[in-house]
Design brief:
Elements (H helix, E strand, L loop, with lengths): L2 E4 L7 H12 L4 E3 L6 E5 L3 H11 L8 E3 L6 H4 E2 L2 H9 L5 E7 L14 E5 L4 H10 L3 E5 L12 H7 L6 E4 L9 E4 L6 E4 L11
Parallel strand pairs: 1-9, 2-9, 4-7, 6-10
Antiparallel strand pairs: 2-3, 3-8, 4-8, 5-6, 6-7, 10-11
Helix pairs in contact: 1-5
């Protein structure tokens, strides 16, 4: 069974998150809570971790993975944004939004979309995940934890352990998350395109 870290949602125990981060550093895959639903994550440059994320979701290399960032300080390193796009992203972060952006050369090839060279980027508001990202010191790669054939994300740590035994190494359990994914906004073109309406309100973006 996956190891479970029972973490307080409002006052996360740093010692437990340090243990979780140590697992990420050695190449493990973890299920983590976000402000929308649970996600599954690995290190940014972990090729095997990337393949594991896609196998867990039952997706091929055309499935866009999302970079989880603690704040927008790393945005220009991994994505190309002008002032207009930056202002829109800033108004919605941290929050339940994923932005699709043109990737820079710093994004590993395994991460960016193979034909469009775009990357998903998100700054989550979940406190435990924010602390984990701070400890990790770099973005984490993620995908929403939706089992193949399911319509909705998983939001219960016990169910995640049961259904993904042998495929996920650990779960950070802060209690149930919402069962709704992020709102996905494509900013890679000249116009703003709403790819998916999720938990994030479009009105907050002026859309």
């Amino acid at each position: 069974m996956p190891l479970v870290f029972e973490v307080h949602p409002d006052n996360p125990q740093i010692r437990l998150l340090k243990q979780a981060n140590a697992m990420l550093e050695r190449g493990d895959v973890l299920a983590v809570p976000t402000d929308s639903s649970y996600a599954v994550v690995c290190r940014l440059n972990d090729k095997e971790g990337v393949e594991r994320l896609r196998r867990i979701r039952g997706k091929d290399d055309k499935h866009l993975l999302t970079m989880l960032c603690r704040d927008l300080s790393e945005l220009s390193t991994y994505a190309q944004v002008d002032n207009r796009k930056y202002r829109m992203i800033k108004t919605a972060t941290p929050g339940a939004y994923t932005f699709i952006l043109d990737a820079t050369k710093e994004v590993p090839r395994k991460v960016s979309h193979p034909s469009r060279k775009t990357v998903g980027l998100r700054v989550p508001a979940n406190k435990a995940l924010q602390e984990l990202l701070a400890l990790h010191g770099a973005p984490l790669l993620s995908t929403t934890l939706i089992a193949p054939g399911d319509e909705h994300p998983l939001n219960d740590a016990d169910e995640i352990c049961e259904r993904f035994e042998g495929r996920i190494d650990a779960v950070i359990d802060t209690g149930a998350c919402p069962r709704e994914p992020t709102t996905v906004i494509d900013l890679s073109g000249d116009s703003v395109v709403v790819i998916r309406q999720g938990l994030g309100l479009l009105s907050a973006l002026g859309l």
